[in-house]
Amino acid sequence: MLKRFSSLLSSFALIALVPCAVMAQGKSDFSQPMEVESSQEELDIKNNRLVLTDNVIIRQGSLLIRADRLEASASENAEQADTFVAEGTPATYSQTLDDGNKINAEANKITYFQSEQRLELSGKARISQGSSSSSGDLITYDLDKQTITATSSGEEDSRVITIFTPKAKTDSNENNNENP
Known about the structure:
Largest sheet: 10 strands, antiparallel
Helix content: 10-25%
Radius of gyration: 19 Å
Number of helices: 2
Distance between the termini: 73 Å
Number of strands: 10
C-alpha cells in the first residue's frame, strides 16, 4: 500500500494541469522539485486517493497552481494517480514557458486526465497566453493533439469568447510601408 502511496505522490509531481504548449515547452519546470502546501491533507491509502484542502498552493519551477481543494486519485489497478481535480473560486494555473511566454488559466474546476492527456477547465473557464485569450463554460485541451475546444452552456446569453490582440507596428514596418 505504501508503494501505491509513493506512486500516487510521484505522479502528483508530474501534474500536468497545464494548458497550451507545455508539452512542447515548459518541460524544465517538471524536472524541478514540487512543493505542495495546504492547511489540511487527507490520504485514503485503501482507495488510493489524496485530498488537499484549504488554500492549496502547488509550486514547481515557474508553475503555480492555487485552489481551494485538490484531489489526486487512481483507478483500483493503477500504480499512480491518473486523475487530478483542482477546485476553487476560481482555481488558477500559471506557468512561464521556456520561450518566456506566460500561460494563465482559471476555472471553477480544472481536471487533468493523465491517461487521456486531456485537460478540462469547467465553470467560468478562461485560458490566455500573452494578450490573447479564450473563455467559455468548458474548455478542453488535448495535450497530445495540441487542440483546444471551447463551448458554451447553450443558454441564450452564454457564448464562447476569443480575443486576439494584434501586435503593435514597429517604426521599421511603418517606414517600409511608406516607401514602396
